[in-house]
Design a protein that fits this description.
Elements: E1 3-8, H1 37-45, E2 54-59, H2 63-69, E3 78-81, H3 87-101, E4 107-112, E5 116-117, H4 120-137, E6 140-145, E7 156-162, E8 172-178, H5 183-191, E9 195-204, H6 205-215, H7 223-227, H8 231-237, H9 243-246, E10 254-259, E11 263-264, H10 272-275, E12 284-292, E13 298-309, E14 314-319, E15 322-327, H11 334-340, H12 343-346
Parallel strand pairs: 1-2, 1-4, 2-3, 6-10, 12-13, 13-14
Antiparallel strand pairs: 4-9, 5-11, 6-9, 7-8, 7-9, 8-10, 14-15
Helix pairs in contact: 3-6
Length: about 350
Amino acid sequence: MSRWAVILAGGVGSRFWPLSTPKRPKQLLPLITDAPLLADTVARLAAIVPAVRTLVVTNTSLAAAVRALLPQLPAENIIAEPRAAGTAPALAWAAVTVARRGHAQDVMLCVHADWAIGDDAEFRATLARAAAVAEREQSLVTVGIVPTRPDPGFGYIEPGAPLDTSKAEGARRVARFAEKPNRETAARMVADGFLWNSGIFVWRASDFLAEVRAHSPEVAPSLPLAEANDIAAFFAQVKPISVDEGVLERSARVLVLPGDFGWDDVGTWAALHRVRARDDAGNATFGDVHSVHAANNVVHADAGSVVLYGVSDLVVVTRDGLTLVTTKERAAELKLLLDVLPPHVRDRS
């Protein structure tokens, strides 16, 4: 059977303001390399999945920009959701598309467009192992990241019983999914062998659709509309829900495979300090940045030049006529900041 890549590239998050805007969200920005995150994601998968079997699910408002960014993909492989409805409907539509254009037994490698991956080769090898397990066990496989720290910003997975087979590739049954904990609970989970819930999913299209029909009343009644290729009616009718809540937490066919390849969600400006190259003083910079007696800062100069002198642990972001300065500690609170900014500052396109 063939393997397909399904890349979730919706969302217009505010955590990378002022660079991120509704027309140019995080996944279209060059936050880690000189290429946008989405372009990096497609390139990372190109070695194991051809362009003709790479699907990108995005918002209608971003479809033109995504097509322009990824001319190597067939135009019909850019799936434009007319309404944001969460990951369960998005992946259900993708599964029906795979079954219609390929085969119901084809395997889907489902990832998000806005991650950092430190070891591309090990990432691909892990996906290959997950695909082998998904095919052999006819199960839904999620890749759980081996934690490097007790991070309260991630959900967690408790691995359960191992599979009774010599070909399990280290996969175990999922005992439970845990929501984002406080720092103390996160430390206890890491000590107890929990894994980060990455949002990497691997399964055959048929197995996923069977579990949607069995466990997801929010999505299942709309599947005939997807099978009729009526995207407007499908997304108008489904009830928004995440795939974790709508399928995985309700299913008994979910396995978790550990992964260790430098994965990071890159959820805030401060997170770039972990994934970008840093200078000898620990500064992670992009653009024309000059640092003197400055340490452990994150700077993204989209426009102009930035000079740092005698400061540490700051986040500095510049774009045309607008500069954000905060601390790495407060960088996760940008939504609170945006709520109180005047519209002429907050809503610059």
